[in-house]
């Protein structure tokens, strides 16, 4: 984990970002005062759209797992995009590509989901080597999309650590036009262009029954220097998801402001 010497605002980082999706994300974070990414991991289109509309005002980014949807149709993506426009948030399909470049590129572009047509951001494992970035880039870059590399994971026993994590950072630096940042547990590089997003976040530390490990908002943003908190069950499984989303938004943003307060 690298803690920045002099924390920068989202606004100041816009000019460092090379990729248009990263620039827009920083703008939205600044405008909406939100570093919250919500991931409603539900299995019905109507539930996902309802959550997107209800929680939209509090978030900068909505993360999807479209392969969970039992009633997916391509029409759904149009409805999601119009809600994203209404509430000014971006979309991140958490596809976790992991094949050779040629196949990952096709999976991104074709099939039922046509992810590159509607998702601003997607992500990839670096297990196959840098060819996966090239393969996805050929499809995504002409459309102005951005890619996150899974440099670390939140689950216990993860193999994504040490040299593996450092390799992800090196690959990202070689592809700054397309790679906008990382899924990581905290800041991995001081380069202000890269956005660090951290899943496994709840109000209380803890675990689930299948290896997920939760950290608190403050520990992720303030102590570990991450930029965006990714929250799923903490919001969608709560009794009052809207209230929880508002809480996570202010917890996340206040932790960011506290980090900025350490500037000289
Ligand atoms: O290391 C990871 C990477 C991701 S993208 N750990 C994760 O949990 N995720 C995703 O974040 C996971 O796929 C899920 O959509 C979300 C965490 O959900 P929660 O309900 O545990 O907050």
What attributes does this structure have?
TIM Barrel, two-stranded antiparallel ribbon, binds 6-sulfanyluridine-5'-phosphate, alpha/beta, 264 residues, single chain
Structure description:
This protein has 264 residues and is of the alpha/beta class. Helices cover 41% and strands 16% of the residues. The chain has a single domain, classed as Aldolase class I (TIM Barrel). An eight-stranded parallel barrel has the order 1-2-3-4-5-6-7-10, surrounded by seven helices. A two-stranded antiparallel ribbon has the order 8-9. Helix 3 packs parallel to helix 4, helix 5 packs parallel to helix 7 and helix 9 packs parallel to helix 11. It is globular, with a radius of gyration of 17 Å. The two termini are 22 Å apart. The model has no long low-confidence stretch (mean pLDDT 97). The site of 6-sulfanyluridine-5'-phosphate has 16 residues, from strand 10 and helix 10.
Task: Output the structural class.
Answer: alpha/beta
CATH class type: Alpha Beta
As for the number of domains, it is 1
Strand content: 15-25%
Radius of gyration: 17 Å
Reported CATH architecture: Alpha-Beta Barrel
The ordered H/E elements are HHEHEHEHHEHEHEEEEHEHH
The count of helical stretches stands at 11
Q: Determine the fraction of residues in helical runs and give it as a percent range.
A: 40-55%
Which ligands does the model contain, each kind named once? 6-sulfanyluridine-5'-phosphate
Poorly predicted runs: none
Shape: globular
> Strands across the major sheet, in which order?
1-2-3-4-5-6-7-10
Q: What name does the CATH topology carry?
A: TIM Barrel
